[in-house]
Amino acid sequence: MKVGILTIGNELISGKTPDTNSSFIARQLHAQGWQTSVIMSVPDDEDAIKTGLNHIMSLSGAVVVTGGLGPTADDITTSATARAFGLGIYTDQAALKHIRDRFEKFHLKWTANNEKQAHVPEGAETIKNPVGMAWGYSLKRDGKIIAVVPGVPSEVKRMVTEGIIPILRKEFKDAAGHVESRTIKLSGITEANVDQVLADVDFGSLGVNIGFYPNFPEIQIVLTAIASTEKDARKRTTAAHERVSERLKQYIFAYDQDTLEGIVAGVLTDKNLTLAVAESCTGGLITDRLTDVPGSSAFLERGVIAYSNNCKADLLGVPQDVLREFGAVSEKTAIFMAEGVRKLGKCNLGLSTTGIAGPAGGTAEKPVGTVFIALADGTRTFCRNYTFRWDRRRNKTMMSQAALMLLKRYLAGELEHER
Amino acid sequence: MKVGILTIGNELISGKTPDTNSSFIARQLHAQGWQTSVIMSVPDDEDAIKTGLNHIMSLSGAVVVTGGLGPTADDITTSATARAFGLGIYTDQAALKHIRDRFEKFHLKWTANNEKQAHVPEGAETIKNPVGMAWGYSLKRDGKIIAVVPGVPSEVKRMVTEGIIPILRKEFKDAAGHVESRTIKLSGITEANVDQVLADVDFGSLGVNIGFYPNFPEIQIVLTAIASTEKDARKRTTAAHERVSERLKQYIFAYDQDTLEGIVAGVLTDKNLTLAVAESCTGGLITDRLTDVPGSSAFLERGVIAYSNNCKADLLGVPQDVLREFGAVSEKTAIFMAEGVRKLGKCNLGLSTTGIAGPAGGTAEKPVGTVFIALADGTRTFCRNYTFRWDRRRNKTMMSQAALMLLKRYLAGELEHER
Q1: Could you give the percent of chain A with pLDDT greater than 90?
Q2: Is residue A417 part of a domain?
Q3: Which of A112, A153, B148, B194 reaches 20 to 30 Å from B65, CA-CA?
């Protein structure tokens, strides 16, 4: 089955906002074994929307539309869609109630233009919005499905996977078999290396489609099998998964929706371990990531952003002569920081980073991107160093990723046989 | 003048590679005062390319095409374009020499399929590629321009700005005027409220186009004026800017490429002030944002992520009876944290947050999203509280934004007349 994608918004057309929804939606369609016919962006303009819709429908069995469902005057997707098919518009009472409830819950001031967000073309079925205001809807015209959701990326992610994909699967059930999809997340390896390591594996003969998606700082491998039974689809995906694991085990940190910080947080909580973190170059990004996990107060006792040498010395106990002799960016300093913050927080584990995020501060010996990462458990202290080659923000991200990977591997007992 | 954009490639259509070229090209067109009619991505398929080209040309005076000029069998953009207009193909000798020279320079092994990269439709003029292999070309059909370049983003950047824009400017010189664009960034107000506050301002009569772009946690207002002289375009934008400032001054924190953390960092550095931060609910996000600014070690002395009550008490000096009586999430605790971290770091300023990011931990009195933010300068301590209504990550983001806004307003002297 062919599905087209139409994203609507002046901000896309002016280049102000990159259209991230299209590639997300295309990947979801691809994972179902469907083909994307065309991806199109048009301005918030009735003629442009109508012309775009007609063009895409001439090439596709369905079209996924995002954007232009907000309260303001330039949000005209629903009226343009209704007019394109000669339909009237009604206010969906359940959608309206959802919006009014959100206004009440969040103590927002109601203005009349918000009712517009509950407008739906006649004959459409609504698609619930679990994370935002406006609901979406799907229409069937001439045997083709038109499904419309708001353009906010977080809402698109939920409403496409939970709303639109199930609708399309039901409507076009002969087109798709049972689909099993698995995402394998890797860190510490490049896309080109993944490609090379797996080059001689014949995934086609396993009946599995493989895709690589760099998603900084991770690489994602997506395995998709389509088969006549669910069991067979799962069996194929599992076989392919085993082939990937055999060759890339040490880089794999999570599957599907799991995150690195989520995995680490889960193990720390389950094992009843406490953690204190001392960050220099990562500037709080490690604890920011860990505290994105609900319930992280169960294991995260404290963090110290030791941006000055004073802080490293007076709070974490890094000796002044170590700072003088080896420098703030050194293995010795990282080790003292990890051990010091562990003691300060009376925790099971202490994790530290010290490095040079850039763009300034590099030397021949310690270039921009250098980082020392240490992990102390009271008995042993592990230290690793890396040199990353990105800009400041991406260096910080890679450094936080490497620190969380070290912690993850420690918790999995994989550092035992290392130093 | 209207210009369409066509990006060609199976990797775009499968969602494997996000299409970053389109928004870059759209921005370049917008900066010339031209309107993008439509942005479209199609697979490496002759029918899809021809159909896409025809559709875009029916809506536009010109079309910019990227992708499908490589050496492999699936690169068919040139043959599809030539056939769409009934043209033959020739090998451009200058383009071929450029490719052969690069092979020699980089010691690459020549294979016959590389000659394909010098194929050009009859009647086309070539566009040089200063950073890659294949040249591009432009064609004129029925008074409309079709300009084609390879899809590699670094090549697109150079060839669009240095090759295509000059061609279009020459062809459509009456169409373009001088363009002046200004982005105003606001925080602490919703898009709907911005819309309402500005509803009765007639920007059209000022000769200015206005757009609102929510860019969480900010709102951006973009003013664009097109006039026959640069001076006139700037005058119009400035007049519109004044109308926005009159009504929304207290929400404005930056312009154009500036960020909130960048503005705050600049003022702290200029005034030679030092800062220590104590974060509970924001978990390090404030220091993470501040340390994204190069040179932040000039003002950021340290941060403390006080996730446990122990840390609030032993490191920041929040009295145990305050924690017991008022709770960790309270005005009193926030004030003690700000004053405590300021003293601990021997800094000019101490900034603190304590709150409930969610999804659990809320009560009737202090619901999820509640935050207390305090700022101490040794003489006075300011405290604000807010209740945000988002998910955990977005609550953290809004809380960090509110804390940085408080700091920014303090530094601008705007809190003097408040409590």
Answers
A1: 79
A2: no
A3: A153
CA distances to B57, B176, B249 from B170, in Å: 19, 10, 41
Task: Quote the pLDDT of residue B389.
Answer: 87
* Per-residue pLDDT tens digits for A228-262: 888 999 999 999 999 999 999 989 999 988 999 99
Give all strands (DSSP E) within B357-396, no chain letters.
370-376, 381-387
CA-based nearest distance B288→chain A, Å: 5
Count up the domains in chain B and report the number: 3
Is the CB of residue B251 less than 8 Å from the CB of residue B260?
no
> Residue A131's closest CA among A109, A150, A146, A111?
A150
* b/e map B345-363, b = 16+ CB within 10 Å: bebbbbbbbbbbbbeebbe
Distance CA A222, CA A227 (A): 16
Gap between the terminal Cα atoms of chain B: 54
Mean pLDDT computed over B32-44: 93
**What average pLDDT is seen over chain B?**
93
Q: Sorting pLDDT into bands at 50, 70 and 90, what band is A215? A: confident
A chain contacts of residue B59, beta-carbon cutoff 8 Å = 48, 51
Q: Give the pLDDT confidence score for residue A199 in this predicted structure.
A: 86
Task: List CB contacts (< 8 A) between A20 and chain B.
Answer: 18
Per-residue pLDDT averaged across A331-343, rounded? 98
A171 touches B: beta carbon within 8 Å:
no
Quick one: pLDDT at residue B209?
A: 83
Give per-residue pLDDT as tens, B110-121: 888 889 999 999
- The DSSP secondary-structure symbol of B109 reads P
pLDDT given for residue A301 in this prediction? 97
Whether B214 shows a pLDDT value over 80: the answer reads: no
Assigned domain for A20 exists: yes
Q: What is the C-alpha separation between B367 and B355, in angstroms, rounded?
A: 9
* Predicted pLDDT of residue B174: 54
Distance, in angstroms, between B9 CA and closest chain A CA? 11
Specify whether A281 is located in the same domain as A154: no
Say whether both A104 and A206 belong to one domain.
no
Is there a single domain that holds both residue A201 and residue A73? no
Residue the block writes with tokens 């060609």: B8
Contacts of A311 in chain B (CB under 8 A): 301-302, 345
Its pTM stands at 0.81
Residue A419 belongs to some domain of the structure: no
Residues of chain A found within 8 Å of residue B37, distances taken between Cβ atoms: 48
Could you give the ipTM of this predicted complex?
0.81
Determine the 3-state secondary structure of B98 from DSSP. Answer: helix
Angle at B243 between CA B196 and CA B186, to 5 degrees: 60
Residues B314-337 have pLDDT tens digits of 999 999 999 999 999 999 999 999
Whether A151 shows a pLDDT value over 90: the answer reads: yes
Cα B226 from Cα B210, distance rounded (Å): 12
Interface of A with B in 241-260 (CB under 8 A): none
Domain interval for residue A191: 178-255
Position A416 scores a pLDDT of 74
Nearest chain B residue to A281 by CA: give it: B291
Residues 6+ apart with CB under 8 A from B249: none
The CATH number linked to B383 is 3.90.950.20
Residues 6+ apart with CB under 8 A from A52: A6, A40, A42, B38
Backbone torsions φ then ψ of B136, nearest 5 degrees:
-105, -170
Please give the Cα distance from B185 to B181 (Å, whole number).
13
Chain B residues 273-312 within an 8 A CB cutoff of chain A: 277, 279, 282-288, 290-292, 294-297, 300-308, 310-311
On the 0-12 / 13-18 / 19+ scale of CB atoms within 10 A, B87 is: middle
